[in-house]
Amino acid sequence: MSDGIRIGQLGAGFIGKVHSLAYRNAARAQRPLGATVELRTLADHNAQRVAEVADRYGWAQTSTDWREIVADPDIDLFDNSAPNDLHVEPCIAAARAGKHVLCEKPLAPSAQEAHRVWREVAAAGVLHQCAFMYRFIPAIAYARQLIEAGELGEILHFRARFLLSFAVDPEVPFSWRFDRQAAGPGALGDLGSHHIDLARFLVAEVASVAAASTIEVPQRPGGAVTNDDAFVAIARLGNGASASFEGSRIAGNHGLTSRIEVDGTRGSLAFDFERLNELALSERGKGGFRSILVTQSAHPFSDFWFPVGIQGQHPISWADCFAHQAHCMLSAIAAGRALPSEAPTMFDGYRVAEAVDAMARAAAEREWVEVSYRDLDSPEGA
Amino acid sequence: MSDGIRIGQLGAGFIGKVHSLAYRNAARAQRPLGATVELRTLADHNAQRVAEVADRYGWAQTSTDWREIVADPDIDLFDNSAPNDLHVEPCIAAARAGKHVLCEKPLAPSAQEAHRVWREVAAAGVLHQCAFMYRFIPAIAYARQLIEAGELGEILHFRARFLLSFAVDPEVPFSWRFDRQAAGPGALGDLGSHHIDLARFLVAEVASVAAASTIEVPQRPGGAVTNDDAFVAIARLGNGASASFEGSRIAGNHGLTSRIEVDGTRGSLAFDFERLNELALSERGKGGFRSILVTQSAHPFSDFWFPVGIQGQHPISWADCFAHQAHCMLSAIAAGRALPSEAPTMFDGYRVAEAVDAMARAAAEREWVEVSYRDLDSPEGA
Amino acid sequence: MSDGIRIGQLGAGFIGKVHSLAYRNAARAQRPLGATVELRTLADHNAQRVAEVADRYGWAQTSTDWREIVADPDIDLFDNSAPNDLHVEPCIAAARAGKHVLCEKPLAPSAQEAHRVWREVAAAGVLHQCAFMYRFIPAIAYARQLIEAGELGEILHFRARFLLSFAVDPEVPFSWRFDRQAAGPGALGDLGSHHIDLARFLVAEVASVAAASTIEVPQRPGGAVTNDDAFVAIARLGNGASASFEGSRIAGNHGLTSRIEVDGTRGSLAFDFERLNELALSERGKGGFRSILVTQSAHPFSDFWFPVGIQGQHPISWADCFAHQAHCMLSAIAAGRALPSEAPTMFDGYRVAEAVDAMARAAAEREWVEVSYRDLDSPEGA
Amino acid sequence: MSDGIRIGQLGAGFIGKVHSLAYRNAARAQRPLGATVELRTLADHNAQRVAEVADRYGWAQTSTDWREIVADPDIDLFDNSAPNDLHVEPCIAAARAGKHVLCEKPLAPSAQEAHRVWREVAAAGVLHQCAFMYRFIPAIAYARQLIEAGELGEILHFRARFLLSFAVDPEVPFSWRFDRQAAGPGALGDLGSHHIDLARFLVAEVASVAAASTIEVPQRPGGAVTNDDAFVAIARLGNGASASFEGSRIAGNHGLTSRIEVDGTRGSLAFDFERLNELALSERGKGGFRSILVTQSAHPFSDFWFPVGIQGQHPISWADCFAHQAHCMLSAIAAGRALPSEAPTMFDGYRVAEAVDAMARAAAEREWVEVSYRDLDSPEGA
Predict the structure, then answer these.
(1) Are strands B257-264 and B242-248 parallel, antiparallel or unpaired?
(2) Which of chain B's residues have a Cβ under 8 Å away from the Cβ of C319?
(3) Is A230 on the interface with B (CB under 8 A)?
(4) Do A232 and B244 touch (CB under 8 A)?
(5) C277 — contact with chain B (CB < 8 Å)?
(6) Pairs from D179-182 (Cβ < 8 Å, separation ≥ 24)
(7) Of A136, A325, C333, D124, which sits most exposed with the smallest number of CB within 10 A?
(8) Is A14 on the interface with D (CB under 8 A)?
(9) Continuous H helices in chain B
């Protein structure tokens, strides 16, 4: 192919590295991509870091100013792997410059800003994706297939909890994650947003919420904590199902507990991030929960890697799911078509932000909040 | 011993059988009881049932009127294993007649009635227990020991869910459990009350709540359902910890999922009823969760049965925990002393009922409710 | 019923207590027994112990000489809960005196002696049972039902391991369990015999074996160890399946790991003693392993206790399975009929002893040993 | 770096793809490699396949004759990802041509041939590795660290089982894996060899063995099966520990069960391939088994990928472990030093082959076989 897809990425931190590897590996997947991929420009405010990371992952050039990416007419896709407060302006600028945009979650520190990003990017007519990566985990994709096929019947309950313990020690120093201005909500935005998107992906939109949140460690070395260390919320979803959400960065001694559970009239399922390759399924009349290794030929993404043969089941990684995500975006660009319906766009990024805001408000005001979504008459919002 | 403890029990249904076996086995425990036990009178409105069950478990005589137990001067302990709407009057009458009282949970269909039971029974000067049996599960008793010893640090989060699926089929017929008058709240009272007591037992009183509840199947063969099929609630506990509760009798395909989790500043623990003999514990700096079989010599109740020797760990049963509960009551009676502080009394039954009522009100009115407890100045309530 | 079943039991140690409770509870089971039960005489060489245990469990009288039980014309059932070297003579004497006999496993320290017990007891025309209690665990009984129904197809592999760690510390003092004369083989007889019986119960007789064994701690405080601390064995079963067995009392840090696994042409199953109420089942074309809680109405023994209602699954105990075992024996005596085909008799006790002997010989001589069973033409052995 | 490491690889099948991706990703690891990497030549007898795979993974050129790789003076590393019967000659030729050699396991269809490969390759003075990939799984590497540090005390027991079900259906067609000439032993060579290497890696060499094996399906569409469908073996290891091994490609309904367990005087550990990121550890005096997620900063390979930060634990994949393996080889080449002691060389490939041969002989002749290793006086074999 004479001209492939040229990528410019903002952010060379932890998640930026993960995205870099994902683009490299997506381009080498067994599943056809339909284009070559070029890692053209990596930008980061930290000059030393951007040089190192670009060298490691093979970016052709570096910059300390994301505007150079936007200004580069040869770049097709803008990847925003920067911290939350650097999502809005760069994404809008890139889209206006005609670049497709993939942005990390949460889309913006507030629903108002997220709404603006979505509307502006959509108006620019480019493809856009918000990196709710969980949708590209095989177990989650399979859960969605099962639910869409009616295997669980009508969904009555959804519950989610996301428990980390990295901030339980008061001596953990201040960083942008603890700052309301830079990050938006804390555990609610960082952790809860993943699960809110899954509630929407698997069941229905969040309709109303009650919540509580806590700043357990108000002062850390280097700064004052201004967003929530932990939150709990209950909700009614659009289909009438009950839901509960919890997120914490101060939760005892958890490695990375991220678990969702769904109960319907015909069965139940559960997913646990630490056992990334498993989906637990319990169907009425067929006994209790069984652990399905979602790496067999019948499962989503089984064609992605080598593929897996008859000899069985080979665990994939968390980072591999980012390659699935990148592949979804790149192959749509290559084909000149819209993203598939299961891909998360900035519409989803906005909708999640609205639910996050509602939870934050419900917690602050100690009242039930109806979530109101803007642009309900928008074709894309239908 | 010339004169042992003579028991009269109301209720020959499922839980009445469990109590009957528990009294028999408590009297034969390795752990000293200090008295003999006589199963004197079993009462139930169903004459055929009471005859059969009395014969099976060796009750000396039967009755179809609980007042005969109250009137019998030779009965020392009144056990109330009747449905919820038969708790209040018989318990009070028995206590006034000088009998010690053990009553199944929930103590009463409303907090007001529960308060009355507690006050009247306490005023009678008899020993009293409300059958929050979970406190007598070795894993729960051990969890309390660990928390009291500070092994988990300050407790920040508590979560509980109790999921059954027996009522998800709309053809399941109506019974007293589905009736607000007879049973009080549905899943909230029947299932939630166990977990509310555990939050209190392991962490602190429930201070404020928000909740939502559902009647998913309003009409069943034989009657209209008037209490909740499912509820979700969030709460602030008295020590500032966040809490969440969920209970459902319409939850997908669960056998009996009853799980609690506690996160503190030094570690986390989890208990799952289906794995009754295990406690999962995760301590900071000592790796992830480990499954502790709570049947070894270091654990509560390890002296209770044979006892277990060096050869290892022998699973006990759910019904065995009722024997622990019975033994706690009987040995206090035998010794003429108060129940140990970890035993659940009618004070606990009342306090739980207050939190249940608050959750029901919070759900009905869609607002946060502060739980107000009566008789805070009572010595027993201190 | 005018005259019930009168029991005399030899042995008031750990397992004697378990049997005592089992007889009491079997007599109060929901499942009809057809007779009353009288705990008549408990015998043990230790006069103080026998008095205490008899008092606790309600034995009518005690003795320090088992011959008094044999001589008592009013005793119907002789229970032998004594150490292994007290199995042969008392069982034979009791049977000759016309008493039904239930004897703990292993039946005798050698196959030759076990054969003699079986033949003598069978010749006396009484009912007899060898306490391979695992057959009365609901999960095992259910596994047998599944296999008999062909749900696993043709069985190709069986594997078992029984791992304890109580003897890994060299300071654990000498007792009869470590003595070849008193106990017979060590881990092989004590632990392996359970699993050998399960191979026979679920698949087929042991046909040929190779094995290795170890005395890791030859000298303990109080005596020299003369039987195996650990063994491993491989075998061919009568149907051609491969099998492996392992047992150890010096295995690292295991509570009580006793696990069996079966693979057939249509599926696999696994049982783990520490999760007594669960059976893991994996059927071809139906995904991976699922954990079945074997306490529902469809399962063996679900009618035994209260019974369990629609509200779900209540874990039973290890000791409860002894009540199942006792009930099996008592109800056959009450009905005057033979034991059901799934009950383990002294024929099974003998057959297991023959396989144990073969493994011990295979280990000692480092060669494959064909297991030869005596009395193949016996009607009872057919 | 002006001149990097140039790789030539034989084999474009399933495992060849995995190796291709591994070389690409190893070159982009966070952990320094010290050289650039060039995927120069991919060879495979299937011209169409080699073209497709080379295109996907970015090999610069292709060939249908491995001799072209050997003859290319610009190739530094020869990777042999071909079927088992193409290991011996190409590896020896490549080494004689001065190329470093990495070869898939099993090293050769017989111990005699494996010995020849080892001696010839070692004599050529090049670096060499046999792809016992399990050593590069973080949980296994961590297990070795724990054992070397004495955390488990003296090792007394090792057990391993590798259960697949892909061949239980007799209609699965014949392929080279079922052919004794092409593949060597079946389940024993393909599956058992991994676990034999782990016994050696974690405990000690295999000293003596007894075994049994089965051809359950002798005839398949397309050919006669001439190697074992399943085997079981017991062994004594060099340090006196007992060991058992089992492998099957006809085992009921298993996805990919590959499990090892180790018991020492101070504790136990277990590893299960399907839960690749977990190691179960049980230490005396510290309760039961706990599941350690081996992806934290304290663990091997935690520096390899991004690296993982304070926010917790991100599952890696099976394929990632091949990148670890490739990185080990490439970084040694780059540094001009020997492989680290924990890396598996062709010496290990030979030693495993000797144990495999001994097990095959033990099964065929139904006798215990002492494993005799050649060149015990070799410096490399010390």
Answers:
(1) unpaired
(2) 305-306, 314, 316-317, 320
(3) yes
(4) yes
(5) yes
(6) D179/D223, D179/D225, D179/D226, D179/D227, D180/D109, D180/D226, D180/D227, D181/D85, D181/D109, D181/D226, D182/D83, D182/D84, D182/D85, D182/D109
(7) D124
(8) yes
(9) 14-26, 47-57, 66-71, 88-96, 111-123, 138-148, 180-183, 187, 193-202, 318-335, 346-365
| Predicted-assembly ipTM surpassing the 0.90 threshold | yes
- Residue B126 φ/ψ, nearest 5 degrees: -95, 165
CA distances from D285 to A288, B280, C268, C352, D267 (A): 34, 16, 35, 35, 9
Q: Which two tokens stand for residue A256?
A: 């990375």
Tokens 């196959």 appear where? C111
* Nearest one of A135, B154, A318 to D312, comparing CA atoms: A318
Residues A343-359 as b or e (16 or more Cβ within 10 Å = b): bbbbbbbbbbbbbbbbb
Chain D: residue whose CA lies nearest to A293: D255
Report pLDDT digits (tens) over C77-110.
999 999 999 999 999 999 999 999 999 999 999 9
Domains, chain C: 5-134 (3.40.50.720), 136-316+350-364 (3.30.360.10)
Are the beta carbons of A288 and C292 separated by less than 8 Å? yes
A80: which 2 tokens?
Answer: 């925003």
> Residues of B with CB below 8 A from C295's CB?
255
C166 Cβ contact list (under 8 Å, min separation 6): B310, B311, B312, C172, C249
- Decide if pLDDT at D94 tops 50: yes
DSSP H or E run through D208 = strand D206-214
3-state helix, strand, coil in chain C (%, to 5): 35, 25, 40
In terms of C-beta density within 10 A (0-12 exposed, 13-18 middle, 19 or more buried), how is residue D32 classed?
Answer: exposed
CA distance A379 to chain D (A): 38
Mark yes or no for CB contact A290/C291 under 8 Å.
Answer: yes
CA dihedral C85, C91, C94, C96 (to 10 degrees): -120
User: How do strand A369-370 and strand C369-370 relate by DSSP bridges?
Assistant: unpaired
Strands of B104-253 (E only): list them.
128-130, 155-163, 206-214, 219-220, 223-224, 230-237, 242-248
Kindly give the pairing relationship between strand B290-293 and strand B278-283: antiparallel
pLDDT tens column, C123-159: 999 999 999 999 999 999 999 999 999 999 999 999 9
Q: Is B282 on the interface with A (CB under 8 A)?
A: yes
Give how far D248 is from chain A: nearest CA, Å: 11
In this prediction the pTM is 0.95
DSSP-assigned letters across all residues of A107-151: S-SSHHHHHHHHHHHHHTT--EEE--GGGGSHHHHHHHHHHHTTT
Please, which residues bridge with residue A272 across strands? A259
Instruction: Please report, to the nearest 10 degrees, the dihedral formed by the alpha carbons of residues D359, D362, D368, D369 taken in order.
Output: -60
